[in-house]
Amino acid sequence: MKAIYCVLTLVAVSMVFFGAWSVATAADAASKGAVAPAPAPAPAPMPGVAEKSSVDALVKITDTKIAPTKVTIKVGETVEWKNASKTDQAVTTDANLAKGKGSIAIPKSAQAFSSGDIKPGGSFAYTFTVAGTYRYISLKHGRDGEVVVKAEEVRKAPAKAETTKKSKTR
């Protein structure tokens, strides 16, 4: 019986120590000088959808235009479309969504992208991984835009200097 009591006590102390029985909120813990646990990490972004901190070109969408209408970037760089209008906007290279509203084209090995609704003041960022020309449209007003993605330059190593050994003759 004494052994069971010791085990139960040990379990209870362990649970309190590891937080299983803790009912305090993060605010309670902070007020007592305790450090609140770190929040869970954010889910990984979808392929091609970029984090906002890595934008290489910015396109603004208003109720009447897309500006600039053409941007040029390198493979691996990101374009952000910022909704500067008062209504939802959307951009796409998906021909099924465009339904003949504009001129859409993507490189053969690239996947189409679509922003979904971009709320006023919101943005959509996409990282381009395939070189080529992407023609997209704004689904709300049918305006066309273009992203030209240049292949990364392959830097050639400098040619090795040829050395010849001269034989010593006596």
Could you explain the architecture of this structure?
- With 170 residues, this protein is of the alpha/beta class.
- The protein has a domain at 52-150: Immunoglobulin-like.
- It is 15% helix and 23% strand.
- A 4-stranded mixed β-sheet has the order 2-1-4-6, with no helix packed on it. The chain has a 4-stranded mixed β-sheet with strand order 3-8-7-5.
- The chain starts with a helix and ends in a 20-residue tail after the last strand.
- Mean pLDDT is 74; it is low at 3-8, 10-30 and 39-47.
For the record, the CATH class of one domain is Mainly Beta
Number of strands: 8
> End-to-end span in angstroms?
102 Å
- Rg calc: 29 Å
CATH superfamily of one domain: Cupredoxins -  blue copper proteins
The low-confidence parts are 3-8, 10-30, 39-47
Main beta sheet: 4 strands, mixed
Assign the CATH topology of one domain: Immunoglobulin-like
Strand order of the largest sheet: 2-1-4-6
How would you state the average pLDDT, rounded? Answer: 74
Helix content: 10-25%
Helical stretch tally = 3
Global outline: globular
H-E string: HHEEEEEHEEE
**Which range does the strand content fall in?**
15-25%
- Tell me the structural class: alpha/beta
Question: Architecture of one domain, according to CATH?
Answer: Sandwich
Summarize the helices and strands and which ones pair or pack.
Blueprint: H1 2-17, H2 26-31, E1 57-61, E2 66-67, E3 70-74, E4 78-83, E5 91-92, H3 95-98, E6 123-127, E7 132-138, E8 144-150
Parallel strand pairs: 1-4, 3-8
Antiparallel strand pairs: 1-2, 4-6, 5-7, 7-8
